[in-house]
C-alpha cells in the first residue's frame, strides 16, 4: 500500500517531532504529503470544579494557539529540511483521540504517525494512553513512534 496523505499530531514535545521526522522519511520515500496538526481545546476548563472568568479563558486560548502555531512552525522546518511537502493546521476542538481521528477522516488521511510518551503503571492508569485511544477509534493505519 502506498500512503499519500500522512497525518502527524504535534504537541510541541520531542516525541511528537520524532514522529514527524519518521513521517517525513516515509513521505520522502513514497512521494506523500504530510499534514501536521496541533489541537487546542476550545474550553479546557469545561470539567473544572471552579469558577473562571471569560477573560481567563480568552487568555488561555490565545496562549494555547500561540504555542500550537510555534510547534507547527518547528514542524514546517523539520519537513522542509527533509525535502517534504507539509501543510499545518491548528485544530480547535477537544484534545482527544476522537478529534485526531475525525481530522484524519476529514483530510482523507491514509496513515497516522504519532509519538507515544511510553507511560507505564500508575501514570498510564491515571493519564491513559492517547496513542492507544487513537488506535482504538480508527480504521486508518497508525504508526506509533516511541523515541
From TrEMBL:
Entry similarity comment: Belongs to the universal stress protein A family.
Cytoplasm keyword on record: yes
UniProt keyword Transmembrane present: no
SUPFAM superfamilies for the chain: Adenine nucleotide alpha hydrolases-like
Coiled-coil portions: 58-85
Keywords: Coiled coil, Cytoplasm
GO cellular component: cytoplasm
Domain UspA: 3-146
Gene3D superfamilies, per database record: HUPs
Subcellular localization: Cytoplasm
Pfam families noted in UniProt: Usp
Organism field: Acinetobacter wuhouensis
Protein name as annotated: Universal stress protein
